[in-house]
Amino acid sequence: MNSKRVLLKLSGESLSDNSSSISEKSLSKVTREIKSVVDKGNVQLAVVIGAGNIWRGGGKFIERVTADKMGMLATVMNSLALNDSLIKSGVKSTVFSASGVSGFVEKFNREKAVRRLEKGYVVIFAGGTGNPFFTTDTASALRAAEIKADILLKATQVDGVYNVDPKKDKNAVKYDVLTFQEALDKHLAIMDAEAFSLCMQSSISIIVFDFYKEGNLQKVISGEKIGTRVEE
Of 90, 138, 194, 203, which is most buried by a Cβ count within 10 Å? Predict the structure, then answer.
């Protein structure tokens, strides 16, 4: 892969462990993986991180719009934690939020974000899309389109996209490459429908890969055939 500008979509769970919503060990691992890429100096990296480690909605006792707003705030917390860890490791990093969180992070501004990327900053996009009813998958696709990312990397706990759940069926078949249309025809749940559609319309390829295997982020960025690539 000769990508110059990459957006990495992380789950909130990438920062957690069984005992803590944000664990030092998990946060350090994510930081090391990102730093290994940044230190190479050949990629502009943006990050969107979810909030499943902190908040998954309030069920029926909290109204959906309110619950989604709480989730967006939780992504700001995760983004601040990652930003702090990156800076301490010597990586230039900054956070933009879709909705203004005065005194904590800057409100998202596309031009500022692109300039920071060009200056070598890791740019973390928090706050989802700023609207309820949309996931952080959709936020990652939206930001990828806005900054004209070459590719969107979806970090998961599996090594790619399969025809069926590989944890439930030992005969599951992994796809190395798919077109957007093939993924749609096969009803493969790669990202939510809005995110997938936006990537397809913007001609942004997606790579789904196992982020939890040490060194995989660097390998994907370097063009090694890891995970599943979805493209036109």
Answer: 138
**Degrees to nearest 5, angle at CA 65 with 62 and 70:** 70
What does the pLDDT read at residue 167? Answer: 87
Closest Cα to residue 12, out of 33, 25, 26?
26
Q: Are strands 161-162 and 174-175 parallel, antiparallel or unpaired?
A: antiparallel
Residue in the block written with tokens 């979805």: 230
To which residue do tokens 């800076």 refer?
87
- Domain count of the chain? 1
What is residue 3's predicted lDDT score, i.e. its pLDDT? 61
Q: Give Dmax over CA atoms of the chain in angstroms.
A: 52
Domain that holds residue 139: 5-231
The upper half-sphere exposure of residue 172, i.e. CA atoms within 13 Å in the direction of its Cβ, equals: 16
The pLDDT of residue 42 is 87
Rounded Cα distance between 194 and 200, Å, is 10
- Summarize pLDDT for 158-189 with one digit per residue, the tens: 999 999 988 899 899 999 999 999 999 999 98
Residue 138: alpha-carbon gap to chain centroid: 10
User: In the predicted model, is pLDDT for residue 1 greater than 70?
Assistant: no
Whether the pLDDT of residue 67 is over 60: the answer is: yes
CATH code assigned at 88: 3.40.1160.10
Torsion of CA 223, 225, 228, 231, to 10 degrees: 50
Length, in residues, of the chain: 232
* 205 DSSP β-pair partners: 151
CA distance 186 to 189: 9
